Each structure stands twice: as C-alpha cells, then as structure tokens.
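[Archive record]
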Amino acid sequence: MKLMVVDDETATRNGILKYVHWTELGIEQIKAAGSALEALRISSVWEPDIVISDIRMPDMDGVTLCRKLKEMLPACCLIFISGYADKENLIAAISLSAVSFVEKPFSIEELEAAIQKAVDHCFASHETAYLKSSLRCNMPVIEEYVVKGLVREEITDELLDNCRFLEFPLDQKTCFQVLLFEAREAIKVRAEFLGTILPYFEERQERTLKYFRSERELVMILFSPEKGCFIKESIQNTIMEVIERLNREGIPLFCAAGSVVRGYEQIAASFGKAEQMKEELFFTGYGSASFYRKNGGERTTSGQLMKLSEIEEAIRRYDVPGICKWEERLYRTIRRGSVCSVSEIRKVYFQLLYAVECAALKLLHQEVVRTGDEIWCTACAARTLEELHSCFIEAAEKKLAPSHEREGLSDTVFQVICQIKKDYSREDLDITTLADSVYLTPTYLSNLFKKETGFTIGQYITLVRIKAAKELLGDKSLKLYQVAEQCGYSDQNYFAKIFKRQEGINPSDFRKTRM
C-alpha cells in the first residue's frame, strides 16, 4: 500500500512521517510533497493509494488538488487535515468521498485511526474491483448457466441469484421468446457472429441472454417489457434481415422462433415450441426461418412410406441416371408436402443408401461395406432434406459406375473390370486370380472378356496401370520406383519399358511435360 502526505508546513509533514506506525498499518511505501503542484507531479508517476492532504496551501488548495487527483486516480482514498473545520470544507470533503476529515491539532492516534480506515477501504475496493473483473471474465459462463437452467426448467436459488446479477427480470410481467439459430457449418469466430446478430435486436431496445449449444447452434432468450414488440411483423423482419446478412457473408443460417410467454417460469415452454419449429429446417433448408403460430403452421403427416421400387430397381441395374431421376421425384414429392415424418424420411434414405452400399460391394468398389449403424449415422447427420438428397446422389455417383461404362457388358465382365480398377496395384493380379473371383475358368473368362471389351485381360490391366501411373507421375515427391510399385510393378526398368511402349515416351520425360 502506498501513501503520500501533502502539507506546506514542514513541521507537520515531518511529524506525520516520523511518528505514525506505518508498518503496523500496512503502509509499505511513503512519499511527501510540500505543495499541491509537487503532489500532482509525484502522483502522475507513483500513483498513491492513499493521500493525506492539508486543505489550505499557497499554490493550490487541498480540495482542488484532490479533485484533480480523483480525475487521475479514481480509486485513491483521501484524508483531509485542516485547522479550519468550516462547513464549506466539510461539504467539499463529502463531495470527494473523503474517508476522513481530521482537525488540527490532532493526535497521532487520531490520524492513525483515519489511516487504518483508509487502508481498510482500499483493501475492500481492491477486492470488489477484482471480483468485478473476475465476474466480467466469467460472464459468458454465468450467462450459459442461466440460459441452460431456464430452458430446461431447472430453476434453483443459485440460478435466481445469477439472474439478479445479470439484471435478468424475474417478475411475472416481462415477456420472453426463445430463438434457436443454427448455421450450416461450424461458427469459427463466435465474437464476430454475435457482433453481427446482436445489434439488430439492440436497435429494437430488446435484451438478450444467449449461449452456444454446439459449434453450429446458438440459443437466445429475447425479452422485452411489452409483448407487442414480439408479435409485430417487425421481429420477423428483423430475423430475416439477420439471416439474409449472414447468407451474404457466407454463413447460411436457420432460425426457429418459439412462442411468446409471460414470466421467466414459462421460458422452457417457449424453448419447447422453438424446438418443434426447428423441425421445419429439415424441409425448408438454411437461409430461412420458422415462427411459432398457436393455431396452425404445423406439418401433418400420413405416416405412409413412399414406394421405392423404381429407385431400388435402378440401383440393381447400376443405372445412375435412372437412380437420379427417380430419387429427384421422391425428393420433390417430400418437398411439396410431408407424406411422412422426418424420422420416417431418414429411414427411407437409410434404406436407399444401404442398397447403394450393397450394390457397390457387389461391384467390388470397396473391400468392406459400411455397417448399418454407420449408414444410419450418415442419414442422421444430414440436417436438411436437401443434404439427404445430395448425400444420396453423391453416394450413387461415387460408388456405382456410370452407365456408359457398363453398356453392352455382362455382369461377369463388368465385375472383373471393377476388380481390376480396385486391385491394379497388386503385382499378382492376373487372369487366374480374376477367373477364380467370378468362378470361371481362365480360358472361358479370357474369351468372354475379349469378346465384350476388345481387349485381352492382360492388355486391360496394363491400360489401367499406365493410366494410374500418369496421375502419380504428377506428384514430384514420389520416386519412379515408388510409382512403379504403386502400379503393380516391382521392377522399375520393366515398368519404364511398358510405359514407353504404351505412351511413346519414358516416365522421366513424361514427368517433365507435366511440370
């Protein structure tokens, strides 16, 4: 603790410095000034916690000095000493929140009592400032705790105390509304995201409490003294403005607005309605909003699953254009009206994704088919119908060969082609291995393959390997022997010979043309 004595009388100044028991009072550093101007100069650098100042001094009176000190050091504690305890000086001391006013002549005990009071006041102020600073740092944590408790209807005395700290209204007149915002992708900079949203509501003189439920979701409690502020179209317009703004900034957003309720105990009910309205996101997609309506606006479902026979038949034929055509009809049917619930729609797409996975396994596009649980997780991860639609089309196009590759080919030859494309890096890939995989003799398979493709199996394996080698040669980090090994050739020189025979140029020169 630092203390400064300001008095133009040398005897008084020195007496205070000499006789006060500073260590016992907790004063660690002491300075003295013989004038107000000297005191200001010292304070600008040293910043005392406590100032003992005479009131009547020649260059500047103590009251003016202390006003300037308070402007410079608002937390500084003041003790006035004076031989003139007039009303004017007392009023000035009060206005500056002086800790004590000590009249001259005074005893050391009187002054020490005033100093002790100032020390206690300083410690209390420092503790309060620290607590406030800590609370400011923990404000988001407190806010999250309060919002979670209110929306879950877990109201405790501790929660109510935190509500009061946040100046959150606990009366039965204030109206509340829960808003659920969800972004299509993780919100990377939360402060910027909030900095975009909150001003729209602040302009309407509405307050908010909020917390991020996940990387993509924000739960917000909106409150205002008048219910009308919520039910006006302007609140809907405000939310749509927020959504459009963030869309333009590359953050597609959806908002579900719950019911307007009166009294903090009903916030959980508003949250429940917002969760119901959030189901609309599945159908409408991002860049939209859904507002609770008491008598209407909810989707009805028939509980009847759509017929999938046309799509499943197209999957069995590996007819990707046909798959896309029939699935597009299914997608548009669901968009026009809810023929079944969201959970049932997910089951439909799970069934279709599983059919694609099984067809892909048959074609040997992958070594192990995904489990049903993994496919169901994929279906559930899609937050919108559009995402489910895109997920299915992508899987069909990626896992099932385009129809033009299959045109005119039997199932057997097509399966052999798929296995060659999958296993071309195996050095032991040959006619015998392929014939065993389709339960035919090598001779019969060789003749069938040549008849349908115009290539021998050996020629086709070479074509696939050289095509892969051309791609790998574009990677400068790979040595030529590594490229050869990844394409099924253990002998680099033999690989180079085959490559030049196919392409008319050796691998090293071909690589130079790609750089």
Q: What stands out?
A: The beta strands are 2-6, 29-33, 50-54, 77-82, 100-103, 175-183, 207-212, 217-224, 253-262, 288-291. DSSP finds 26 helices and ten strands in the chain.
